Every structure is written in structure tokens, then in C-alpha cells.
Design the sequence.
């Protein structure tokens, strides 16, 4: 296996952190709240079943527009109408969109993340699991935003199928999903570049994570790194048009999914 490159790990793990189960312990939520109180040198520890442990600086959740990767800035530029920001973390994307005049609802499973966003001035915040979003309170959304490898919030291929069906109630006519994901097949290449995977086992992009902060350790949970062909196949089967908008040098890509009329 090749090492999990730092930039994709940081992007993926930061979104992983903001998708933690809401029940205690909530290491991510505590880390974000500590940062908000001025403890700006905190580190989160991330364990996974495919790589060595990673450390993630908490300040990554609080980055400004020009500290964001190009794909994230591109996604923000593609937003339109009412925006639902899923896996919003400390709210850096929601706050940027608010400054641009958008109406944004930020959603995260971490109670501490939700409290942090409220303290930072995100105007509408809710604590929900992306697979069990309540019906829109009022108008549906024109854009669903899932950044920092945010499509991984669905947890598995089964979760992806469920999400694409259930989230249709959230979308306005001509609404869009803007999401990032990554192809991590390179982790399973041998020295000759051939894939070494169990074709009878789980999809290689289904990863298990667990994270901690100080003495707190969270529960293990699933995360999906869906490659472009998987995203296209599942989205088209669910009735979406698929447009790939960009890709970086770490095999992370931005995709737009639009419901067919």
C-alpha cells in the first residue's frame, strides 16, 4: 500500500470529524469548542482500518476562503439559491456563503460542532444524521453541499443508495447536489500498479474510522470513498444527471448531481 497522502487525509478526516455520532463522547465537538474558547493548538487523532493513525490540527476546521482547497472554492462558486450544508463542522463554508448573501442551513451530527457554529454566527443550524434528514421546514433547497470528501457521510454503498433516494425530498426543482469524493484505489496497488483487492469482499472505498481528542475516544463508524464510476452508476440509477466539475492531484473530485425533470 502507498501512504495515505497528507492533503487527501486532511480533507477526508476533517469531514469525518464533523460527521461523528451526536451521543457522548463527542471528541470533535469538544475540540471545536475548545478552539472557539481560544485553545488553538489542539489535535485530533484519527484511526482507520486502511492507514496508520493521522493527526489533524483543529484549526483546519476554521480556515478562511483562501485557505480552502481549490475544489472547495469551486463548489462555493457553483452554489445557488437556498443551501443545505451537510457535515458542516465549524461552519467555514456556511459562513462564507452567508457573507455572499446566501440563505444557508448548516447540519452536523456533532452536538459540539452545532454549538460551535451557533457561537460563530451561522444563522440556521441543526443536528441531524444525513440519512435521516427531516422534511424541509418551508421551501426545499436549491443546493445541497457536501465538501471535505463529504459524500463519505453516507458511510457505505448501501448508504449512498439510500441517501440519493431520500434526499430527493430536500431538493427544489432543478436543485443540485455538489459533493466531493475520492478514489483511494491507489492504496491497494502492488509495486507494478495492479490492484490487490478481494473482489468478493466489501468495496475497497468503505473505510472504518475512529477518532479521539485528549482522553476521549469516539465510536467506530463507516465512511465511503466512492470513485467516479461508482458515483455515476449509483446517481444515474437513482435518476440524477451527473457532471464532474473538477479533480485535484490527489484523486479527489467535485461532482454535480441534478435530478432529472
Sequence:
Amino acid at each position: 500500500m502507498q501512504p495515505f497522502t497528507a492533503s487527501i487525509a486532511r480533507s477526508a478526516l476533517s469531514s469525518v470529524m464533523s460527521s461523528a455520532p451526536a451521543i457522548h463522547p463527542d471528541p470533535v465537538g469538544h475540540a471545536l469548542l475548545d478552539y472557539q474558547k481560544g485553545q488553538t493548538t489542539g489535535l485530533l487523532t484519527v484511526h482507520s482500518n486502511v492507514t496508520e493513525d493521522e493527526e489533524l490540527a483543529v484549526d483546519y476546521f476554521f480556515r478562511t476562503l483562501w485557505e480552502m482547497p481549490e475544489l472547495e472554492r469551486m463548489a462555493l462558486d457553483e452554489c445557488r439559491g437556498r443551501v443545505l450544508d451537510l457535515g458542516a463542522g465549524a461552519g467555514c463554508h456556511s459562513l462564507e456563503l452567508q457573507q455572499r448573501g446566501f440563505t444557508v442551513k448548516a447540519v452536523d451530527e456533532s452536538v459540539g460542532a452545532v454549538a460551535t457554529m451557533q457561537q460563530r454566527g451561522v444563522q440556521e443550524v441543526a443536528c441531524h444524521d444525513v440519512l435521516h434528514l427531516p422534511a424541509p421546514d418551508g421551501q426545499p433547497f436549491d443546493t445541497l453541499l457536501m465538501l471535505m470528501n463529504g459524500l463519505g457521510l453516507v458511510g457505505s454503498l448501501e448508504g449512498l443508495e439510500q441517501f440519493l433516494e431520500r434526499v430527493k425530498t430536500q431538493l427544489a426543482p432543478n436543485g443540485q447536489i455538489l459533493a466531493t469524493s475520492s478514489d483511494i484505489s491507489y492504496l491497494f496497488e502492488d509495486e507494478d500498479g495492479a490492484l490487490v483487492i478481494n473482489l468478493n469482499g466489501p468495496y475497497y472505498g468503505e473505510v472504518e474510522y475512529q477518532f479521539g481528542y485528549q482522553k476521549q475516544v469516539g465510536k467506530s463508524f463507516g465512511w465511503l470513498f466512492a470513485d467516479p464510476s461508482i458515483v455515476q452508476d449509483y446517481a444515474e440509477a437513482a435518476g440524477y444527471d451527473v457532471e464532474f466539475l473538477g479533480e485535484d492531484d490527489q484523486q479527489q473530485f467535485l461532482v454535480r448531481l441534478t435530478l432529472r425533470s
In short: Residues 6-17 form the longest helix (12 residues). Confidence is low (pLDDT under 50) at residues 1-6. The chain is about 25% helix and 25% strand. The helical segments are 6-17, 27-36, 70-78, 92-99, 111-120, 157-166, 228-237.
